[in-house]
Write a structure and sequence with these properties.
The structure is a single chain. The protein is of the alpha+beta class and 577 residues long. The protein contains 15 helices and 31 strands. The strands form eight sheets. Strands 3, 7, 8, 9, 10, 11, 12, 21 and 24 form a nine-stranded mixed beta sheet that branches. Bound molecules: adenosine-5'-triphosphate and magnesium ion.
Length: 577
């Protein structure tokens, strides 16, 4: 491909709307253009990167025995009513009505459609197991689309669904996908972890997320330093507190004036007490209803744990105005004693004694509060976010926290969908039984963004070789010299003959701007054909990743470069080696 004929609109300025580096570089490098909020056009370079990921995914899914198909994007509401998700899914589901007044939606995921297909096409245990997948655009009306390809409203996903005759067989299907996902992300050249995860709206009993480690990740992971335990903090269990025998004598409750002090820190300073003495009262709206979540003063509520504890569909922190409107209570002075709203307490709170809390009265706090004596929550459970100071829930070892980008998610679904939708097969005894299902997603377009978050420098993207839209870029640095131009074109031709994807920068531009563009778009190998060729018949090869440079005789360059690229690709294609 000739640069002069490409649609590759690079820019110098960092677009102000782009907060994270992958979004900035994808725009600056001419990979994507925004159509409307969370909806992007993939320009040729962006599409090529997405296709690289898709191809690796496809190869590994096929290797694992999955079958590719393609389902419609438009889905009838009736199927979603059968599964119960028409009500449950909430505003992320884009619903619409057609000219016949039939309700439909754009597919955010395809459990309903595939379960409907299975109940029609799979009748007998002899046809099982089956794993069916597609690579397709999904639509989710995300509340906060942001970060470019990271969280779009329309994005490319690979979604797979397995059907088995028993839990045991479904477990094997799950394990096969777990392994396939490891191969996929290794082949993409990414640093990642598989972590235990919450099951969310998709439902089901068991799941792992695949996380690309990057500082801009929206998820926090907890990783054990001593065993293989790794989990999303949304899921990571905190061990119940050890209750000390004896301890301090119980105090009486006392009301103290704390003028203008709303934050734990301020009151703690004023009363000369540690924040761990406090009970923090946070008001959340659980499916619209206010609930008070209680944690120790130096802890944080983990909203997904709160949601699961309450069995709610949606939980969000209430802002000050909503708190006042819904409860009439003074923000900053909330507490559990005499609270008129439902209370959920972290297990640790119930082991505290002589606590400090808000008094539900402006400018006042209470000291000497005893959980159980002075207030009783409706629900008690594991509610707080795990910290690096906690112990590993699996081995008791020390923990560390890190940020991750979720690029894949695998679930054991069990029979939730097949029972709801009456999708059955005849088992070995001739009995009708519901399929045991699993589902497996990969954010194909998000992988491109995650790869950039993990691999870039101040000059631009550094694509892992397997994801690069072109493996080699040749810079013709003497467009006015016939000899240089012929040599550059010949090298491009030879490399293509070796099966490589090559971009030939044949533009009449200064070398400096060619270097800048090549760095920005992140092509792993750059060959410069210019003065050294004219003088000595040599070209220069520069590796984007580490700046390593070598000089090659023009006649030998194609063979040497092709060997390098192929060796590197082969190493990533066989991750076990
Ligand atoms: P998240 O927690 O990030 O919203 P999710 O749990 O909703 O993700 P799944 O339903 O498991 O995601 O979807 C499968 C995969 O699709 C995810 O692992 C992620 O990589 C990708 N994905 C999900 N939502 C988006 C989005 N809005 N934009 C781009 N990719 C997405
Ligand atoms: Mg989501």
């Amino acid at each position: 491909m000739r640069y002069s004929q490409m649609l590759l609109p690079t820019t110098k300025e960092t677009p102000s709307e782009a907060e994270v580096v992958s979004h900035q570089l994808l725009l600056r490098g001419g990979f994507i253009r925004k159509l409307t909020s969370g909806v992007y056009t993939y320009l040729p370079l962006g599409l090529a990167a997405v296709q690289r990921v898709a191809q690796i995914v496809r190869e590994e899914m096929n290797r694992a025995g999955a079958l590719e198909l393609l389902m419609p994007m438009v889905q009838p509401a009736d199927l979603w009513k059968e599964s119960g998700r028409w009500q449950k899914y909430g505003p992320e589901l884009l619903r619409f009505t057609d000219r016949h007044n039939r309700e439909s939606c754009l597919g955010p995921t395809h459990e309903e459609v595939i379960t409907d297909l299975a109940r029609r096409e799979l009748q007998s245990y002899r046809q099982l197991p089956k794993n069916l997948y597609q690579i397709q655009s999904k639509f989710r009306d995300e509340i906060r689309p942001r970060f470019g390809l990271m969280r779009g409203r329309e994005f490319v996903m690979k979604d797979a669904y397995s059907f088995d005759e028993s839990d045991e067989a479904a477990g094997r299907s799950y394990d096969r996908m777990y392994e396939a996902y490891h191969r996929i992300f290794q082949r993409c050249g990414l640093e990642f972890r598989a972590v235990e995860a919450d099951t969310g709206t998709i439902g089901g009993s068991f799941s792992h997320e695949f996380m690309v480690l990057a500082a801009t990740g929206e998820d926090t992971l907890v990783i054990c330093n001593e065993c293989s335990y790794a989990a999303n903090v949304e899921k990571a269990k905190v061990a119940p507190p050890v209750i000390e025998e004896g301890g301090e004598p119980l105090q009486e409750m006392v009301r103290v004036e704390t003028p203008g002090m709303k934050k734990v820190e301020a009151v703690a300073n004023f009363l000369k007490a540690a924040p761990s003495r406090f009970i923090k009262t946070m008001i959340y709206l659980a499916d619209g209803e206010p609930v008070a979540a209680l944690v120790r003063g130096d802890r944080e509520v983990q909203p997904v744990k709160l949601k699961n504890l309450l069995g709610a569909v949606d939980v969000e922190l209430a802002d000050d105005e909503t708190v006042f409107k819904k409860t009439g209570l003074p923000v900053g002075y909330l507490g559990p004693v005499g609270s008129p709203i439902r209370m959920v307490a972290d297990q640790e709170v119930m082991a505290m004694r002589n606590c400090i809390t808000g008094a539900n009265e402006k400018q006042f706090h209470l000291t000497g509060v005893q959980p159980g004596r002075d207030f009783s929550p409706t629900v008690i459970g594991d509610l707080r976010q795990i910290t690096a100071e906690d112990r590993c829930p699996s081995c008791g070892g020390s923990l560390r926290l890190t940020e991750g980008i979720e690029v894949g998610h695998i679930f054991k679904l069990g029979t939730a969908y097949s029972e709801a939708m009456n999708a059955t097969f005849q088992d070995r005894d001739g009995q009708a039984r519901p399929f045991v299902m699993g589902c497996y997603g990969i954010g194909v377009s998000r992988v491109v963004a995650a790869a950039i978050e993990q691999n870039h420098d101040e000059n631009g993207i550094i694509f892992p070789l397997p994801l690069a839209p072109f493996q080699v870029i040749i810079l013709n640095l003497g467009v006015n010299s016939e000899a240089v131009t012929v040599a550059a074109e010949q090298l491009a031709e030879e490399l293509r003959g070796e099966g490589l994807e090559v971009l030939l920068d044949d533009r009449d531009e200064r070398p400096g701007s060619k270097f800048k563009d090549a760095d920005l778009i992140g092509i792993p190998y750059r060959v410069m054909v210019g003065k050294t060729f004219e003088k000595e018949g040599k070209v220069e090869l520069r590796r984007r990743r580490d700046g390593h440079t070598e000089t090659l005789a023009a006649g030998e360059a194609a063979g040497a470069i092709a060997a390098m690229v192929k060796a590197e690709l082969a190493a990533s294609a066989h991750p076990e080696n």
